[in-house]
Amino acid sequence: MHAPPNFRIYDQAACLEHMGCIGFGTLIIAAEALPVIAHMPFTISPIGDEVYVRFHLARANPAVAALIGIEARSEPAMLVVNGPSHYISPDWYGSPDRVPTWNYTAIHASGPVEALDEDALQPALSELSARFEADLAPKTPWTLDKMTSGRLDAMCRAIKGFQMRIETLEGTQKMSQDKPDEDAKSVAKALKSLGTEDARRIADLIIASRGPETR
Questions:
Q1: What count of other Cβ atoms lies within 10 Å of the Cβ of residue 57?
Q2: What does each C-alpha distance from 111 to 71, 153, 168, 208 come to in angstroms?
Q3: How many whole angstroms separate alpha carbon 13 and alpha carbon 182?
Q4: What is the pTM of this model?
Q5: Which of 53, 100, 160, 203 could, after both became Cys, cross-link 188 (CB 3.0–4.6 A)?
Q6: pLDDT over 60 at 214, yes or no
Q7: What pLDDT sits at residue 74?
């Protein structure tokens, strides 16, 4: 990851928090020709001193065979988690001679992957649904026991669960930290005026990245 010092997220706990809040990422698995890529939701599970990413894929997904292959070879996979992002127009700065750019958050996590056994799959599925159902409160959470046993067993046979132990974790958050406070505030104001969710989130992150005196 290219992450200049003023954009790099040095706090590993902050990287994990970003990942957990988003809960969806792109898994990249090395292969002989092109990398094999899968897009999937995930959960983050601390176990002792280690942190694991748990996920599942359809057995028909080529990434399943690729993951089994790198497990046998003790090779790592990489998970890329992108946060909110937005185009930044030079017109939004108060200073002249600015150029277009893009503000964004991205986390890269990598480490060895292992397949989950059958007994671990349903608990992992319950953990995943509970994570995202919680975001829908006050809705009553959906749970696996709402499925008939036959349908649940059929679903489980059609998927394969995995977990990746995080060995390396890198993060970058480009939020106009390289610009003067007045320029950053001007950009945040312009973003909020757009009225979209991503623009608002980026505006809030820009302001949060500055000192309290600029808020």
A1: 18
A2: 10, 30, 7, 31
A3: 30
A4: 0.92
A5: 203
A6: no
A7: 94
What is the DSSP secondary-structure string of 147-190?
S-HHHHHHHHHTEEEEEEE--EEEEEEESSTTS-HHHHHHHHHH
- One of 2.40.160.10, 3.40.225.10, 2.40.30.10, 2.30.110.10 is the CATH number of 12-90+97-176, namely 2.30.110.10
Residue 114 near residue 45, CB atoms below 8 Å: no
CA–CA separation, 135 and 97 (whole Å) = 43
Residues 7/174, Cβ–Cβ less than 8 Å = yes
Rounded (10°) CA dihedral 128, 133, 134, 136 = 150
Mean pLDDT for the chain overall: 95
- pLDDT tens digits, residue range 152-201? 999 999 999 999 999 999 999 999 999 999 999 999 999 999 999 999 99
Beta-strand (E) ranges in the chain? 24-29, 36-41, 43-47, 50-58, 76-88, 101-115, 159-165, 168-174
Residue whose structure tokens are 């090395």:
30
Q: Where are the domains of the chain?
A: 12-90+97-176
Tokens of 71: 């497990």
